[in-house]
Structure formats: C-alpha cells, structure tokens
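WARN retry 2 of 3 for item q-0093 after timeout on previous attempt; input resubmitted unchanged.
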Amino acid sequence: MSETPEQNTEAAKSKKRRNLASSPEFVDALRKYRLLDPEDVLDPIPVSTESQFLRPSMSTMDVADSAMVTGPVTDLTARSPLSEEDLDRIAVKVQAYFRSEIRVMVKEITESMVQDITSGVVNSLRDEVAELRAENNSLKSKVDQLKTAADVAEQYSRRNCLRISGFKESETESTDTIVLDLARELDVELSLEEIDRSYRVGKKTSKARDIIVKFVSYRSRNRFYRARVRGKDTPALAKVYVNEDLTRKRNHILYECRQLFNDELVAGTWSFDGNIFIKDKANKVHRIDKVEDLVAFN
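OK item q-0093 returned
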C-alpha cells in the first residue's frame, strides 16, 4: 500500500528529529548543561519506534505539545525521540542541577540576611553600650561631686573640733579637766565655758581612746590648735598629739602623707582647717585633695 503525501512528510520530519537527537551537537549540549556525564552515551533509537509516536492525522510536534498539555508523562516519554533510559538520566541530571542551584541560592540569601541582621543587632548593641557607658560616666561624675560636697559639709561640721591622743584612760577621769590641764601645759588661755563638750571616741579597748573636744567658737579652737607646737619642748607631752578632727577621707589622705614623710620623701605634712598640705624637698607647699595627688612625690 502506497503512503500518502502527508505520511511522507511526517516520516521525513521524524527522521530529521531522530537524526538531531543522535547528533554530536545535541549530546554536547546536554553535557554542557550537566544533563549528561562525560562518559554517558545516548542509546540509538531504531527507525521502527517511529510508529509508536506518529499518527497519520497529526504531526509529531503536535502530538508532543498535546501530551504536555493534557496527556500523562508516560505518553510524552513514549513519543520522545530519546530512549526511556536517556530521559531518566536527563531527568535525574535536571533535578540535581536545579537542586544544587536552589541550594546555593538559598544559602546565599540566608547568609546575606543573617549578615544584615547580625550587623544591625551588633550596631544597635554598640550604640546602646556607648550610650550606657556615657551615662555611667556621667553618673560617676555626679556621684563623685556629691561625695565631695558631702565630705566638705561633714568637715565643716567638725571645724570647731580637735582630736587629742596620748592620755591614759581611767574610769574616774574628766575629759574636760584633761583638756584644761593640757591648755595650761601649752600656755594657752582656755576656760571651761569655751568647751562645748569633750568625750572619748570609739569602742573601749585596752588601748586608750582619743578625746574629741568641741569648742564653743572657732576662735578658741584655733588658738588652742596653734599652741600645740609648744608641746614638743615639754617632756610630759612627748607622746601627746593634737590634731584636727578630719573626715575619714581626709584622715586617710593625711595618713598617706605621713607615710611619705616617714620615708623621707617629703619635708613635712600637716592639716589646717580641714585641708591637707605637704612640703616637698624644695620647701614648696602643696595642697593635697586626693590620694592620687601624692603620685608625684613617690
């Protein structure tokens, strides 16, 4: 039975497509896009398979298009100019290729997002830490100012007081009498009316406690304090000391100054009106407001 012109045309197109699928250029294209391994070889398709995917009334391309829209995958596979093994290998390669590409894409997007988020969080925390540090420094400065103001106020409240040490303590003693006797030894005028009050300070121990004397006026207190230097020439007062009643902070500063004097690093040290002074080896007087000021003399 002779073939119609339409059948001849379809046969020619099928042969052309089969030759294209078997051509080296097509195989190279598949390998280029990693759809085939270099060692893979496409199975040849016999001419007789043409009858499996050709119909007299429809072209091969129309059949393929129809299968892609409405037909199952198996119909498309049956009409393909490649063998099923080739199609399976290509499908696996396509899946692996796109899976790898998607994985790389997701990784890049994720890393970019994480980096942006991390950078934003770090910058935010850095700014917050800088603000907190500045606020903390400001608060420290204010606290130091308040401490200084409190120390000044406390020292002013002690301006009429002196601290006397070196007298033995007894149960029947009168601290007012001890102060008046000391004034006579120092050859300074002082009456009982000029003493507001006097008392031993601190917990009672085996060691004699200091005597705090509060004078009625700063004038009486200052007159008594200036006369203390006369006690150096009196043997009975060799171990008696008259000092200003300093705050804990200022008393610590004076103690450190005396350590420098004992180490012969300075020529002298004393306090006056609650302020600490030091005389260096060149006989220059310096006012000491904090322990850090003593670093220059070490």
